[in-house]
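Recall the central idea of this unit: under ordinary conditions, the amino acid sequence of a chain determines the structure it adopts. In this exercise we apply that idea directly, starting from the sequence alone.
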Amino acid sequence: MKFTEYCPLLKIEDIDANLPFQIQTFQQMRDAIVEHNATPHKQNYIEIVWITKGSGTLVLDLEMFTLQSNSVFCITPGQLHQLREDEDTEGYILSFTEAFLHMGEQEFDLMYNSGLFQAFSRSAGIRLNSEVAREMQEVATKMLKESNNIYLFKTEMLRRYLKIFLIYVTRQFQGPLQTVVQTRNLDLVEKFKSLVEVHFKTHRKVADYAKLLAVTPNYLNEIIKKITAYPASYHIRQRIVLEAKRRVAYSDECMKEVAWYLGFTDIAHFSKFFKNATGATFSDFRKECLVISPVH
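Accordingly, the structure predicted from this sequence is:
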């Protein structure tokens, strides 16, 4: 079975065709969660999973995370994932697009200036303290109520509540996550990552992306390393490795098929690249991935 058949892409329209935002409780959508996560899948929207009580597991790009009470997880567009929650699990699932978060806003770029989503990229989940959890519970209750009404400015109210909710989450991160003033640098990093997402199969040199961004390779490397602690080449390589690991784990494609998909014309080169990156051969890695294969 091909990777695209095995790992469908879910779109925000699959959730709500009228509003690019949705909040639901686990109790409300128990059956839908099971159906939605029958197989590993990707989606074109952001999903915040907040477990208030209970347990389960979240497989996120081949890593398995344990769901615990008062834990929050963020699933970003394009991430391959599968959620398995226990029957007594309680909590909320918030689904929204980046456009919804930014709609009509110029003065405050929460996603980039707060570092929230960059932090989630380094640590998939966080634990909330009880005080913050209570505050977030109030906001979640207001979002649920607002999402079910038919009054004017419903969209604006929901967006404001969502930003408040995300600010509470941001405050739980420890370390240097104060508002970042290096807006231009962060903007360059995000543009670079977006380009890597599109071109990683054909563009493997830092110079390729520097040309697209109209900067020098040295400058691009300097900024990327300053913001992320890793050089640009590392991010390019990691994106190729991630796609290779996804296809090994979630399809029956052979090594030659995966190599060709990723632009490797020399199979021996790809084999060496894969082993150096993962520490395992192609076949050994596929065997190891059986432990996170979906339950049917």
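The chain has a mean pLDDT of 82.
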